[in-house]
Design a protein that fits this description.
single chain; alpha/beta; seven-stranded parallel sheet; six-stranded parallel sheet; globular
Length: about 350
């Protein structure tokens, strides 16, 4: 098949990582793949101020920089205008829009661009609020989504939609298992994002409460958005900054539990990556957490708040070493059932079904 990916501006987001993996995997399977990216979205001063005042953070004006396409060697081209039009895309068998705005552009294009597929991975970020996405679920195109959390939400507002569930995978050779003893004192980790829906402030508050109640553990923050050191920092708070895959693996393998506190999440790749490294996850019930964590040696907190999260940290600290090792191995075993070749095969099947459906119409 000739497959076009209609991608947002190149970056290092988790969603683009998935696109790059699928583009590379489909090309390796013999398909003709082209990735067409938009230029960075430019936010008005009003939009940036509104997001700041509503707690969503200050939106920087972005430029095209490092991206997963570059890191994985996936050929791509950037068209520096918005919206994209038919002349910007090649004719193909299938065209995959990868976010709500690009799905709107694709919906307006003619049949020569291919069967229309909408890879819906997430919502909740500024300019990606749920109410903006709802109309896109009613477009005449096949929707592929990545977690049952999103699958059920989509069908809840568009029960007539043609939706396929294709969960993400993990490279178990890169995110490798380290059979290890529990740390004493315990080490916790988390990806820190400023976006309010990630609720990283809740996690920091829980760690403060945990330490105040006698907890001896360490919390390591991963990512370039972590706050600067402050005299008010609790003891044991560390910042690792932005890490490449090798650094992430080391971070995961050095932890006894990974924290995932998002109130809304498409999937949550760190859940699966941590589990593949043998690190149990303490998670809120969003994204793929309800599917992965209960069978993977982790803790799923249905009604998460700072007190319950602090309690889970104390539970990790009190856990006997052999019990923790069993949970670590269970986390790895659960992750081994989720690999990228399988996910890519399922994604290819969804694209073929869309292409075949168009030919039959």
């Amino acid at each position: 098949m000739k497959i076009t990916f209609l991608s947002p501006s190149p970056d290092l987001s988790g969603g683009e990582r998935v696109l790059a993996i699928y583009a590379a995997g489909l090309a390796a399977m013999g398909h003709g793949v082209e990735v067409v990216c938009t230029g960075p979205r430019r936010f008005s001063a009003w939009t940036r101020t509104k997001c700041l005042l509503t707690g969503k953070g200050w939106l920087p004006q972005r430029r095209v920089g490092a991206s997963h396409y570059q890191q994985m060697g996936v050929p791509h081209r950037v068209v520096r205008r918005r919206p994209l039009v038919e002349g910007d895309l090649p004719d193909a068998d299938v065209c995959v829009a990868s976010w709500w705005e690009t799905s709107t552009w694709l919906n307006a294009m003619g049949p020569a661009k291919g069967a229309k597929v909408y890879l819906m991975q997430d919502y909740g970020a500024p300019s990606q609020e749920w109410h903006k996405l709802e109309p896109t679920f009613r477009y005449p195109m096949k929707i592929v989504t990545i977690s049952r959390w999103l699958y059920e939400r989509i069908l809840g507002v568009a029960p007539e939609a043609d939706v396929a569930l294709v969960p993400n995978g993990v490279d178990a050779e890169v995110f490798s298992f380290l059979d290890r003893p529990k740390n004493d004192p315990p080490v916790f980790g988390m990806v820190y994002r400023k976006l309010a829906t990630k609720r990283c402030g809740l996690a920091l508050g829980a760690f403060v409460a945990y330490r105040a109640a006698g907890g001896r553990g360490v919390l390591r923050l991963v990512g370039g958005e972590a706050p600067e050191p402050s005299p008010d920092d609790p003891p044991g708070l560390e910042r690792l900054g932005r890490l490449d895959d090798a650094g992430l693996v080391t971070a995961y393998q050095g932890c006894d539990a990974w924290l995932f506190t998002s109130e809304s999440e498409g999937f949550g790749l760190p859940i699966l990556e941590a589990m593949a490294c043998g690190t149990p996850v303490i998670a809120a019930p969003s994204g793929a957490a309800p599917e992965l964590v209960p069978g993977g040696g982790g803790w799923l907190l249905e009604d998460i708040d700072a007190g319950r999260l602090a309690g889970a940290m104390h539970e990790v600290e009190a856990l006997p070493g052999d019990t923790w090792v069993a949970r670590s191995r269970a986390a790895r075993a659960a992750a081994e059932g989720c690999d990228w070749p399988t996910a890519t095969g399922r994604f290819e099947a969804a694209l073929r079904a869309a292409a075949d459906g168009r030919r039959e119409a």
